Amino acid sequence: MIAYRAGTPVLVSQFLADARRLARSFPPCTHVLNACSDRYHFTVGLAAALISGRASLLPSSQAPQVMQQLGEFAPDAICLCDEADGSSALPRVLDPREALGAGEEDAAAVTAAHEVPQIDAAQLAAYVFTSGSTGTPLSHRKSFGPLIACVREGARRLGLAGAARWAMLATVPPQHMYGFESSVLLALACGHALCAERPFYPADIAAALERLPRPRALVTTPVHLRALLGSGVELPAVDLVLCSTAPLAQQLAAEAERRFDARLLEIYGSTETGQIAIRRPTHTAEWRLWSGVSLELEAAGSRARGGHIEQPTLLPDVLEMTGPESFLLHGRLSDLVNIAGKRSSLAYLNYQLNSIPGVEDGAFFHAAESSASHTGVARVAACVVAPALDAARLLEALRERIDAVFLPRPLLFVARLPRNDTGKLPLAALQSLAAQMKSAAPA
Amino acid sequence: MSDHQVASLRHAAAAADADALSTEVARLIVQALNLEISPAQIAPDQPLYGEGLGLDSIDILEIALVVSKTYGVQLRADSGENTRIFGSLRQLVEYIIANRTK
Question: Of all helices (H) and strands (E), which one includes residue A155?
Answer without folding.
Answer: helix A144-158
